[in-house]
Fold this protein.
Amino acid sequence: MSLLKISLPGNGWLHTALLVAGLSLVSACGAPSGPDGISDPFETTNRKIHAFNRGVDRALLGPASKGYGGIIPKPVSQGIGNLAETLDLPGDIANDLLQFRIGDAVQNTMRLGTNVFFGLGGLIDTSTALGLQGKPTDFGETLHVWGFGEGPYLEVPFSGPSTVRDAAGTVVDIAMNPVRLAVPKREATAAMAIKLFSRVGDRDRFSETIESILYDSADSYAQARLLYLQNRRFTLNRGADATSEDEYIDPYEDPYAE
Amino acid sequence: MPSEPMVSRRTVLASSVGGLALLALPRAALAMSADEAKVLVDNTVAQINDIINSGKSEQAMYGDFEDLFARYADVPTIARSVLGPAAKAASSGQMSSYTKAFQVYISHKYGRRFREFIGGRIEVAEAKAVKSFFEVISTAYLQGEAPFEVRWHVSDKSGKGLFFNIIIEGVNMLASERTEMGALLDQRGGDLDTLITDLKTL
């Protein structure tokens, strides 16, 4: 939360400072090591933050999302989700360009235009109905495209699983968000509120999955870490065949199979 | 003394059952084709679609999912792989009751998750050989969600073509269950028998 507060518009030097901080974090990224390709040298601290996040979810986010899901009609929460996604598009396009993915930049630009002009300013996702699927991305992915490794695993307070590279990416995404930089302070705050509501809505939509990981698994920290890393690597891999061997487990060959 | 012959009879019985099971598991490759792997997943998916759209109660669906796992998945291999190093130290009697308990556990767990598929469908696209087995790629279409990818790993090394892993958007069932089973065993101080008893109720 403090990150969001200090990066309000008009603080040019702060943007630079955040960028430098983000990039110097990234220079600490290395190749993953350890069992299952997981590098977690900060496990003790991470587990404390995980316990804190779990407490926040149990006491605040979970109940809030149930209330939100119960009060807000589905079309409205869907609209807020769509609006939040539209607000992400300028940042996505900037990252697409930084990744030299011109096709994605064009597709996201078409989505932005279609949803703003034919979707009530982004409330309705007209693009997906037309077969123009979203191509969400972030600065963490840009760093991946530029050749940075994911670095050690991190649990971020209030936010959850990440890696050093992805956390640095998030810092840069917040500091450099084109929407926040382009619009007046009041509108930027409104945009932030929409994103917050959208996250609460997501917590409600995916409640079964999230609760099964956080509250039904024997070691929710290890489970969340594994799921995040596997899914993140899959996303960054973009449908290419697995590059790491750990995705192809052969139980007929491993030492425990015989 | 009366208990003595009972024990030895049971031991003999158990070991001969073990011997029969070994005979029934030819280890030579049966030269499965990619098409056959795809047919297996087609059949599995057809049955999943039937179960989730049957309108049955959750409890009845669990039974159906257990049948599905027993029929299309290589449950003993999955169970053993998920248990990890502890499988090596376990007796054959422990392994057989663990495998039975695991089948209940896994069908409940994934039965609960497949409930989210109600009203949706899974489409099987292609199968290809990877390493020493086959990978079948399918796409799940759920109501109100962007389509996502589900990969099935299939092998005939058990003696017939069965799936042994499901990978949903990169999230690997074997890896995830290994983490879970390791933690469950740790919670019970490494006591496999307690784990076997508890597994059916989780």
The domain at 9-199 of chain B is CATH 3.10.450.710 (Nuclear Transport Factor 2; Chain: A,). Chain B is about 55% helix and 20% strand. Chain B has a mean pLDDT of 83. The longest strand of chain B covers residues 121-130.
